[in-house]
Backbone:
């Protein structure tokens, strides 16, 4: 048996949770989504990636952080045209995050870190962070999108001109973290170039121009941006390892701050 300290709150007793506050003053909350990930990957892809990276971070920190309850459903209205997608509104998602933080605060935690595998949660997390500055001034709240932590690694991969959701980088992570859930025989290219977008969508994705928010079924027929058939577990490991290293470095400094 492992002699490592436990780090998942879900597996602790209430007494163990009370004891953990002192040695593990940061709670890491994995946030995901329940949404289509194209023809080859599962609906929980974002949650799975966030949980697995959070777990690796906690292991690297030797039990000096705990993993809190995951947020398995996020803000995904743009994916609702695809079967199986379940979404919260931004206000509901933000309220859930705030109430998680309030609950953890009650038990003594003053540092909460949300790691989101789903970019659709970013805006709501920003608002929660802003609100907590006044509603919980002695609570520190940090958050990060997952893949963006390793954007330099992704830039060095062979990716399509248009890539992102269920594309090369995300599929690579799943091939590394949960290969049994990737149907490699069903992976298919989605929209891979700006030529496949309407002129307005193309302009909207160009920096220096306003952003028009559209549904995903207006961007890609199969729900994919990029070509996941080019994804490799090797690239996925590089993305995950980089994300783990950078979150671990941040949390290490935060523990001492
Ligand atoms: Zn995703």
Residues:
């Amino acid at each position: 048996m492992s002699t490592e300290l436990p780090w998942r709150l879900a597996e602790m007793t209430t007494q163990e949770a009370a004891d953990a506050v002192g040695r593990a003053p940061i709670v890491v909350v994995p946030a995901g989504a329940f949404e289509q990930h194209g023809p080859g990957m599962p609906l929980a892809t974002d949650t799975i990636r966030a949980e697995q990276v959070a777990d690796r971070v906690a292991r690297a920190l030797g039990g000096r952080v705990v993993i809190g309850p995951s947020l398995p459903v996020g803000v995904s209205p743009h994916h609702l045209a695809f079967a199986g997608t379940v979404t919260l509104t931004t206000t509901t998602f933000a309220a859930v995050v705030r109430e998680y933080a309030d609950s953890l605060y009650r038990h003594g935690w003053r540092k909460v870190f949300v790691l989101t595998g789903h970019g659709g949660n970013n805006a709501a997390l920003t608002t929660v962070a802003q609100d907590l500055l006044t509603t919980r001034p002695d609570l520190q709240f940090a958050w990060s999108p997952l893949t963006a932590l390793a954007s330099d690694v992704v830039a060095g991969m062979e990716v399509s001109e248009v890539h992102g959701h269920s594309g090369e980088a995300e599929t690579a992570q799943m091939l590394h973290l949960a290969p049994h859930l990737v149907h490699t025989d069903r992976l298919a290219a989605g929209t891979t170039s700006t030529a496949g977008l309407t002129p307005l969508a193309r302009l909207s994705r160009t920096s220096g121009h306003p952003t028009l928010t559209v549904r995903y079924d207006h961007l890609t027929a199969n729900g994919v941006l990029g070509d996941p058939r080019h994804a490799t577990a090797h690239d996925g490991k590089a993305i995950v390892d980089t994300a783990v290293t950078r979150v671990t470095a941040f949390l290490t400094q935060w523990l001492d701050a």
